[in-house]
Specification:
Strands 1, 2, 3, 4, 5, 6 and 7 form a 7-stranded mixed sheet that branches. The protein has a 6-stranded parallel sheet with strand order 10-9-8-11-12-13, sandwiched between helices. The chain has 2 domains: about 1-55 and about 80-130, Rossmann fold, CATH 3.40.50.10860; about 145-285 and about 315-340, Rossmann fold, CATH 3.40.50. It has 12 helices and 13 strands. The longest helix is centred in the last third of the chain and has 24 residues, at about 330-355. The protein is globular. With about 350 residues, it is of the alpha/beta class. Helix 2 (about 90-105) crosses helix 3. It binds nicotinamide-adenine-dinucleotide (NAD). Nicotinamide-adenine-dinucleotide binds near residues 235, 238 and 257.
């Protein structure tokens, strides 16, 4: 196994690993550990080049720093990627090699499941390192983070609707893009609250399940951006808010689970110019990391405590929207400023303690 450090400005440690025996090609990016050890998921994706993987892992890793800072999880930000196809390239040897790679950082980075990996893969990683979370509940761990992410997103949508004059979610029209792990639970909460659901997924059966279960209306994948609705909830991919889609949107709120929803920060400015309220992704989708962080608290995992903390997402989203209005800036910029302020305060505390 060959591990090489790659210098990246603004990142504490970025390492790549090549292990010809298992076929592992992976990168771990540790963005910032001022507020605690870095925690973030392990993504497996068929990246076309190592550069593409590097850009993705670094962007996601910085996002994790901000997410944990705002949610006050006591953790820093990191992320890992395996270059490979999760449908065809998985093996026990691959994930055990990944476990040894994680172990080589001696706790600076803790991993978890993400797009392309699952709880079972983490169980394999666990054979080589203890720095892994999101294992099955039977193992004393916090399990699948998706239901907690969904609760946070539901509360964040509610905060946006109420901030823009709505009383509750009854008859509010919500377009959900993607009907995967998070969206399934989200649709359940939204349907219970009386929202009118529109759904799409590139996997037809997944969307159909929401139609059958919640009476959601089916929309074609490309048409979701043009739909007249109150809330557009991206729960599939990142970068869906961009120059092409912003002019098409006929919603008044964008609030969903997906990471890196904005192609770039200036797309937050464009949403603001159009009068569309945006719930910053790393604030609204923090439920999963909050749940996982409780697992690392001294008393171990406690579901009630996790739920209590996830409930704060309503206030977190509301407060960011209020600050953005007051400062006359886009909400994503207000969220980044808040995260950076919390990290700077943490750095000051650390320096004072070291003196
Ligand atoms: P998932 O893979 O289970 O679900 C994504 C769904 O989107 C899939 O059903 C997929 O078929 C569908 N999809 C992909 N491209 C699409 C397109 N162009 N149009 C419509 N549907 C499309 O993933 P998930 O765990 O539900 O996560 C969803 C998003 O939320 C991801 O961006 C993820 O990074 C983010 N997120 C998830 C969690 C979590 O706890 N799982 C936490 C924070 C953020």
């Amino acid at each position: 196994m060959k591990i090489t450090e790659i210098p990246c400005a603004g990142y504490e440690k970025v390492v790549r690993c090549e292990d010809p025996q298992s076929g592992l090609r992976a990168i771990i990016s540790v963005h910032d550990t001022t507020l605690g050890p870095a925690l973030g998921g392990l993504r497996m994706w068929p990246y076309l080049s190592e550069q593409e993987a590097m850009t993705d892992v670094n962007r996601l890793s910085q996002g994790m720093t901000y997410k944990s800072a705002v949610a006050e999880t006591g953790l820093g930000g990191g992320k890992a990627v395996i270059i490979g196809n999760p449908k065809t390239d998985k093996s026990e040897a691959l994930f055990r090699a990944m476990g040894r790679f994680v172990e080589s950082l001696k706790g600076l980075y803790t991993t978890a499941e993400d797009v392309g990996t699952n709880v079972q893969d983490m169980v394999t990683v666990r054979q080589e390192t203890k720095h892994v979370t999101g294992l099955p509940r039977e193992m004393g761990s916090s399990g699948d983070p998706s239901p907690f992410t969904a609760i946070g997103v539901f509360l964040g949508i509610k905060a946006c609707v109420e901030k823009t004059g709505g009383k509750d979610l009854k008859d509010v029209r919500i377009a959900v893009q993607g009907c995967g792990n998070v969206a399934r639970y989200l649709c359940e909460h939204l349907a219970k609250a009386g929202a009118k659901l529109f759904v799409t997924d590139i996997v037809a059966e997944k969307a159909k399940m929401m139609v059958d279960k919640h009476g959601a209306k089916l929309v074609k994948a490309e048409e979701i951006y043009d739909l007249e609705c109150d809330v557009f909830a991206p729960c599939a991919l990142g970068a869906v808010i961009n120059d092409d889609t912003i002019p098409r949107l006929k919603c008044r709120i964008v609030a969903g689970a997906a990471n890196n929803v904005l192609l770039s920060e200036q797309h937050g400015d464009r949403l603001r110019e159009r009068g569309i309220v945006y719930a910053p992704d790393f604030v609204i989708n923090a439920g999963g990391i909050i749940n996982v962080s409780v697992e690392l608290e001294p008393g171990g995992y406690n579901e009630q405590r996790a739920l209590q903390k996830v409930n704060n997402i309503y206030n977190a989203v509301h407060d960011i929207l209020v600050t953005a209005d007051r400062e006359k800036i886009a909400s994503n910029r207000a969220a980044i400023l808040l995260a950076e302020r919390k990290i700077a305060e943490g750095r000051k505390r650390k320096t004072a303690k070291a003196r």
